[in-house]
Amino acid sequence: LGDVYKRQPYDKELVEKIVKHIKENIGDTTLSVESIAQEMGLSRSALFKKIKTLTGLAPIELIKNIRIQQAVALIEEGKQNLTQIAYTTGFNDSHYFSKCFKAQFGVAPSVYQRGVNNEGINEKNE
Q: How high is the mean pLDDT of the chain?
């Protein structure tokens, strides 16, 4: 999203508002491009064009990326299991969550979680 800040202030504000809306509704499995467009006062196609131009991502990809980023934060926090994290971040299906996570990070969430847990153990032993 770094390139957005080089654009018009309105574009920066719009993307920040969209990201904020997604984060505030992250657990809502019905969060959709249509609901975001309605919230922003744009048509679905106008929202798609704006987000694609400003971020390089389709709106649904942006939603998914933000959900996965939030999942990473929750994994690192270590207070929930992966199924809970999947549902907390708006994924209906833990297998789909794993697929999306692996597509973005190259490893399954369980492998990522083990790495986080092992780092925590190593830090405690040092």
A: 88
